[in-house]
TrEMBL record:
Catalytic activity: guanosine(37) in tRNA + S-adenosyl-L-methionine = N(1)-methylguanosine(37) in tRNA + S-adenosyl-L-homocysteine + H(+)
Primary role: Specifically methylates guanosine-37 in various tRNAs.
Family statement: Belongs to the RNA methyltransferase TrmD family.
Annotated S-adenosyl-L-methionine binding sites: G115, L139, G140, D141, Y142, V143, L144
Domain tRNA methyltransferase TRMD/TRM10-type: 3-233
Keywords: Cytoplasm, Methyltransferase, S-adenosyl-L-methionine, Transferase, tRNA processing
Localization of this protein: Cytoplasm
The protein's name in its UniProt record: tRNA (guanine-N(1)-)-methyltransferase
Length: 241
């Protein structure tokens, strides 16, 4: 079944790239369908206002609930439907992970709600939660100006997992964070020429000895993971093997 992706944003042009990136191919193949919407289309005043001052005071502006509600009514509908996944990218969200991407890759309907300014009136999220399956997700511990770039990153992580999207399903199994790597970072990669600017491909990789190659790669994965991502090795059983 085709996966339908909707983007609600005051900068819908961010999503133009989806037509030319890898998603273009998936869209052509009928695997995904992309619709970007301008939230201001659901305003009624001459300035097409989407924000207002925060209740209780404080810096910046908050996105008003009304345009969101009307956009939801028109884009998603007014009936509860747990098969609709509504994503609110936010630095206050739960960390977005490969397993979340995996879960979303079987969704038929995903709606990205991209906030700007200090954020969206919280009732919008509560309302969406009362109707659909809501995910408040963060890409990491840093702040972006809005949810658009996060929505693009999440889209790419999800769509490449849609069955039939990747040309080579084997390349999905061996990369960082996949089950095939036991939660370790991926080992370093090399290709020809064997010698380049005085730097050589590790000899073991040219040995043709599959057992030694597998051990070298595993050792490198463990070493890199301990060095860069000790949090991934914090299981009670030590480094996964
Ligand atoms: Cl998902 N949104 C925004 N605005 N900033 C972020 C983020 C998301 N993830 C990290 N920083």
């Amino acid at each position: 079944m085709t996966m339908r992706l909707d983007y609600l944003s005051i900068f819908p042009a961010y999503f133009d790239v989806l037509d030319i990136s890898l998603l273009g191919k998936a869209a052509v193949n009928g695997l995904v369908e992309v619709h970007a919407h301008d939230l201001r289309d659901w305003t009624h005043d001459r300035h097409r206002t989407v924000d207002d001052t925060p209740c209780g005071g404080g810096a910046g502006m908050v996105m008003k609930p009304d345009p969101w509600g009307e956009a939801f009514d028109e884009i998603i509908g007014t009936e509860p439907d747990s098969s609709v996944h509504v994503i609110f990218p936010s630095p206050s969200g739960a960390p977005f992970t490969q397993s979340a991407a995996q879960e979303l890759s079987s969704a038929v309907r995903i709606v990205f709600c991209c906030g700007r300014y200090e954020g969206i009136d919280h009732r919008v999220i509560d309302y969406a939660r009362s109707m659909w399956t809501v995910h408040e997700v963060s890409l990491g511990d840093y702040v972006l100006n809005g949810g658009e770039v996060a929505a693009l990153a999440i889209t790419e992580a999800v769509v490449r997992l849609v069955p039939g999207f990747m040309g080579n399903p084997e390349s999905l199994a061996e990369e960082s964070f996949s089950a095939g790597q036991d939660g370790l970072l991926e080992y370093p990669l090399f290709t020809r020429p064997v010698s380049w600017r005085g730097l050589d491909v590790p000899e073991v990789l040219m040995s043709g000895h599959h057992g030694r190659i597998a051990k070298w790669r595993r050792d490198e994965s463990v070493r890199l993971t301990c060095e860069r991502r000790p949090d991934l090795t914090d299981s009670d059983f030590g480094v996964p093997h």
